[in-house]
Amino acid sequence: MAWQYEPVPQTVLLAEDDRAIRNALERALTLEGYQVTAVADGVEALAQAHRTPPDVLVLDVMMPGIDGLQVCRVLRAEGDRTPILMLTALVETQDRIAGLDAGADDYVVKPFDVEEVFARLRALLRRTSEANGAPVDVPKQPQAPEPSGRLIEAAGLRMDPQARRAWRGARELELTRTEFELLELLVRNAGIVLDHSTIYDRIWGYDFGPGSKNLAVYVGYLRRKLDEPGVPQLIHTVRGVGYVLRED
Questions:
Q1: 3-state class of 65 per DSSP?
Q2: Angular region, 48: left φ>0, alpha ψ -120 to 50, beta rest
Q3: CATH code for residues 152-245
Q4: Which of 37, 55, 207, 242 is the most exposed place for a label (fewest CB within 10 A)?
């Protein structure tokens, strides 16, 4: 009798204090093929993440005691780079920025379509897989020349994709996973205008549509980390098209 290989299901740690949402999402994720551990608050989420690290976390923002943002901050402070998808009923841009500041990789606004959750989880897990393998690049786009060795450079920026470190001049930049991947994409294509759909496809693996502010939020956050008084801005908006990295 020949043995057949069965892939190991990817593991999801779900933290949601609303029992109905938690149970429904746990069932849906299980039917989708994930191995799910569901908990009701941030304390349990941290304990479970330390005990059995998952492939991806799904955290509700508003939980009693330790909320999802605090869970995210603790894990990132510990050096845990597991991808994190936030569930939030907060729709203001500043609320979303708070999640990104905490180290989250993406978010879904309630009420959500479960298919959107599936799509974003697939994108996060695919990005993690790519980051552990070949560097991210853009097919069907001219590529900026890459110097020999481990570093890539453009417009006064240096990046080490393997070590996931980046510098502007002598200053090292503290970047989240998504920020690093977005900056790497721009550096590899310096001087080339990348349209919104190309960036969404390469960074998130999913185009969230013209109404999404996801990309604009990340670009704004990257600019705050890159820019300094008296030095040129590097990431430029091409209105109605997308973004380009260049040093004017």
A1: coil
A2: alpha
A3: 1.10.10.10
A4: 207
DSSP, collapsed to helix, strand or coil, labels residue 56 as strand
Q: State the pTM of this model.
A: 0.58
- CA 152 vs CA 58, 161, 228: distances in Å: 33, 8, 21
Cα 135 from Cα 112, distance rounded (Å): 32
Q: pLDDT tens across 196-227, in order?
A: 888 887 877 766 666 667 788 888 888 988 98
Average pLDDT over residues 55-81: 89
Q: Where are the beta strands (DSSP E) in the chain?
A: 11-15, 35-39, 56-60, 84-88, 106-109, 152-154, 157-160, 165-168, 171-173, 194-195, 235-238, 242-245
Q: What is the pLDDT of residues 221-242, one digit of tens each?
A: 889 889 888 888 899 999 888 9
Q: And the tokens for 58?
A: 């799904």
Q: Is the pLDDT confidence value at 138 over 50?
A: no
C-alpha–C-alpha distance, residues 222 and 174, integer Å: 10
List where CATH 3.40.50.2300 sits in the chain: 11-131
What is the C-alpha to C-alpha distance for residues 72 and 61, in angstroms, rounded to an integer?
Answer: 10
The fold for domain 11-131 equals Rossmann fold (3.40.50)
Structure tokens at 225: 């980390």
Asked if 10 and 56 count as a contact pair (C-beta separation under 8 A), the reply is yes
Two structure tokens written together for 230? 């008296």
